Amino acid sequence: MASIKVLGSVPSPYVNRVQIALNLKSVDYEFLQEQVGSKSELLLKSNPVHKKIPVLIHGEKPICQSLIIVQYIDEVWSDGPSILPSDPYDRAVARFWAAYLDDKWWPTIMVLRNAVGEEAQAPALEKVIEGLMPLEDAFAKCSKGKDFFGGDTIGYLDIAFGSFLGWISGIEVIANVKMLDETKTPGLFEWAKMFRSNAAVKDIIPKTEVFVKVIKKFAAGANAQ
Questions:
Q1: Do 125 and 175 meet the contact criterion of CB atoms below 8 Å apart?
Q2: Which letter, b or e, does each residue of 83-118 get, where b requires 16 or more Cβ atoms within 10 Å of its Cβ?
Q3: Which residue has the higher pLDDT, 119 or 106?
Q4: CB burial of residue 32 (10 Å; 0-12, 13-18, 19+)
């Protein structure tokens, strides 16, 4: 078996995606921690185009970009539980919503994270919750009444969205807001609890306090400029 390494940083949701996918497939790997603010020679050599984490190194071959890595893991370790849906249409839908999360919804979270004071936070929070409503609907359709977007087990869209839950909980504490709400997003609210308690996930996504600390550090850095 070729050696498997993951270059990453613990609080990164994109790195967590790779770790969760490997756990689902019961694949052992070596985690190489990248320090915030500096890039190792191995990272620069492995991802010379974007120079970003995560990178999966499988038998000395680097694979970059979190969702591409998750798809690669699913294809290479095909004897484990499937991550992507087997049906081509369901697979396309899962990829669509994963792209929506990264390209459209997550940037609204970053605006909320950086908002200072109630006046700035209120419209930012509104946009975040507005962006969750289509996901609530997508969950109802994709899960078909089961626990996860992937049905009975964690799938591609669960990983794509679930990797952000630590950041969501940290921002909820800092901004004293509620994003995943029992009333407005009941499906996602229950799903988030199921996802975070899953054996493949619970030791990967750090506790809320870690994200609170990181967010405060970001804010301190921004205020110092």
A1: yes
A2: bbbeeeebeebbbebbebbbeebbebbeebbebeee
A3: 106
A4: middle
